[in-house]
Amino acid sequence: MTEKVLAAVRVAPGKMEFQEFPMPELSDDSALLKMDVAGICGTDVKFYMHPPTTKPVIMGHENIGYIARAGREFTRRKGFKEGDLVFLEHYVMCGKCEWCHKGEYRLCEATDWRSNPEGIRYGYTPVDRPPTALWGGFAQYAYLPWNSVLHHVPKGVTPEMAGLVTPMANGVEWSLFDGGVGYNSRVLIQGPGQQGLSQTVICKQAGASLIIVTGTSKDAARLEVAKKLGADYVIDVNKEDPLARIREITGGEGVDVVLDCTAGAGTVPVLLGVEAMKRKGGLMVVQGEMPEFPNYPIGKIAVKYITMKSARGHSFRSCELALQQIASKRFPLELVTTHRFGLKDVDLAIRSVGNLEGGLKGVIHASLIPWE
C-alpha cells in the first residue's frame, strides 16, 4: 500500500491544489477507506466558490469506498470488515448526546461546523485537524475514526449508483419524514437538480397522486428527466406563470406539500409556495439559505395555517431507505448520475455541476473517481 495519499485540496475560493499526505497511522478502533466514488452536489459548488473557512480543506462529502484496513476493535464495534463496500455519511458524531442516540447525527454538536470550531464533518474539515488531513472524499483514501457513520452498500448496487445515496436520503428525509408526503398527496417540487429529482422519486414511491416540478429554461433537460422519474407536470417558470399553471392543474385547490429545492433563487420560491398552497393546513419544507427574508409573509402563512420546516440533511434511517430505493432499480436513476471525472478534473467537475463558466453542459450529478 502506498505511503502517500494524493488529494485535491481547496486552498482558496475556486482554486484547487493537488497535494500528498502521509498515510495515517491506525489505532485499533479506526479504519481506512479506499475511495471509489465521491459524489459532487450543489453544496460542493457553493463551498468551492465561497468557502466557509480560509483554511485548506479536502472537499467531498458524498463518499463511497471499500474498507482497506480496519482495526480489530473497529470491526468488533461497527460490524464492518476489510473489503466491504460502504457509504460514509459526512457527519462525525459524538455518540453520546440525545441526537446520536436517536440516529440524528446531523444535529449533533460534534459535527456542527457552523457553531463548533472543533466540529468534524467530511468535506468541511481543514487538513490541519488531527489526527490526519484525510477528512474528505476528493482523495485516494479517507480516515475512519470510531465515531464515523457507515452503511453497507447492498449487493448489486455499483459504487457509482451508490454515490446518489446522499441526495436520495435527503429526498426521504425532506419529503417523507419532514413533509409527510404519502398516498394521494399533491406535491410541488421547486428546482430539478439532484435534490429535486430525488424528491420526485421518493414522492412517487410514497404514492403521491400529483407531482409538479418547476425549473427555469436552462433546466430544460432536467425537467425532462423529472418527467421520466415520475413528475406529472413540469413548469418552466421563464415561459409561463407558475402560479397560474399550478392553479389550473389543481383546479384552483392548490397543493398539499411544497418542497423548495432551489439554490440561489432568493425569496421567490417561498412566496410562490405560499400562494400555491391549498387553502388551509399545507406544509412547506425549505432550505432557507438566505440570512434575511424582507417582508416575510407571516400574515398569509398564519391565515392559511401553513406549517414550515427547514430541510436539514438526513438521518441514519433515511440513508438506509435510500440505499434500498437505489437497490430496487424501480426508477431509472442512471438518468441522474450523468458524468464521471478523474481527480485531475475536479475543478471542471464542480463547475459543471454548478453550471458555471468553463464547465460542461448537461451535468446533473457527477461522480469523482479519485484513482483516475
SSE map:
Elements: E1 4-12, E2 15-22, E3 31-40, H1 42-49, E4 62-70, H2 72-78, E5 85-92, H3 98-101, E6 141-144, E7 148-152, H4 159-162, H5 165-178, E8 186-190, H6 194-206, E9 210-215, H7 220-228, E10 233-236, H8 242-249, E11 257-260, H9 268-276, E12 283-286, H10 298-303, E13 307-310, H11 316-328, E14 337-342, H12 346-353, E15 365-369
Parallel strand pairs: 8-9, 8-11, 9-10, 11-12, 12-13, 14-15
Antiparallel strand pairs: 1-2, 3-4, 3-6, 3-15, 4-5, 5-7
Keywords:
alpha/beta; Rossmann fold; seven-stranded mixed sheet; six-stranded parallel sheet
Description:
With 372 residues, the chain is an alpha/beta fold. It has two domains: 4-164 and 336-369, Medium-chain alcohol dehydrogenases, catalytic domain (Quinone Oxidoreductase, Chain A, domain 1, Alpha-Beta Complex), CATH 3.90.180; 167-310, Rossmann fold (3-Layer(aba) Sandwich). Helices cover 28% and strands 24% of the residues. It is built from twelve helices and 15 strands. Strands 3, 4, 5, 6, 7, 14 and 15 form a seven-stranded mixed beta sheet that branches. Helix 12 links the parallel strand 14 (337-342) and strand 15 (365-369). Helix 5 packs across helix 6 and helix 5 (165-178) crosses helix 11. The longest helix is centred in the middle third of the chain and has 14 residues, at 165-178. It is globular. The two termini are 17 Å apart.
